Amino acid sequence: MYKKKRNSTKKKIVSAAWQLFYDQGYDDTTVDDIIELSGTSKGSFYHYFDGKDALLSSLSFLFDEKYEELIPRLDPETDAFEKLMYLNSELFAMIENTVPLDLLASLYSTQLTTRGERHLLDRNRIYYRLLRQIVLEGQEKGQIRKDISSNDLTRAYAMCERALLYDWCICNGEYSLRAYAARMMPAMLGYMREGEK
After folding, report:
1. Quick one: which of 144, 152, 128 has its CA closest to 81?
2. Are 1-49 and 56-192 in the same CATH fold?
3. Measured between alpha carbons, how far is 168 from 62 in angstroms, rounded to an integer?
4. Lower Cβ count inside 10 Å, N or C end of the chain?
């Protein structure tokens, strides 16, 4: 129970921070603004984060929160590959509409140079666990090929998403991330389907 409450507090802080970063910009957002919007305390904030800059690496928590929201919407009868495409579409729509491009670019650059945790690569995240579960189910139902391990297919999927996000960042968001991914993800990952080699 205590751990759940702690996770809830951290999520509130992260969600409030990214909402404020999007609405009023990173530079114009203060720790006090984040505390007020999240309904938490200064002590709680500093328990989880050293300061506002530490929140840049928390974007993966926001992504996982979106996946948690999407899980109940997944129809068990839907083809596994189509589930993956749905998740991608919804996540990229959220990113396009709520994550400032400069902060997404900053996150990617810090993940390249950090000596600490690389949150985006944490295999224990909801993101990776859900993707792996969908791939495994697809393999069991004969929808996803079995000659490549579920771990390798999950990793390939995540690499494609990161590649599209990276390209969108270096192109300064000059096109719709969601629309471009809707065309490119099936083209890049079609080999995952059973029968496509």
Report:
1. 144
2. no
3. 19
4. N
The candidate with the shortest Cα–Cα distance to 134, out of 187, 78, 91, 93, is 78
* Topology (CATH level 3) of domain 56-192: Tetracycline Repressor; domain 2 (1.10.357)
Q: How many distinct helices (H) and strands (E) make up the chain?
A: 9, 0
Query: Is 0.85 topped by the overall pTM?
Result: no
Residues 85 and 134: beta-carbon distance below 8 Å:
no
C-beta atoms surrounding 173 within 10 Å: 16
Domain boundaries, the chain: 1-49, 56-192
CATH architecture of the domain with range 1-49: Orthogonal Bundle (1.10)
Task: Please state, in angstroms and rounded to a whole number, the distance separating the CA atoms of residues 110 and 179.
Answer: 27
Axis crossing angle, helix 59-70 with helix 2-24, rounded to the nearest 10: 110
Question: What is the number of residues in the chain?
Answer: 197
Share of the chain above pLDDT 90, in %: 54
Contact 142, 193 (CB under 8 A): no
| 6-10, 15-19, 95-99, 157-161: segment of lowest average pLDDT | 6-10
Give the CA-trace dihedral at 103, 109, 115, 117, to 10 degrees. 50
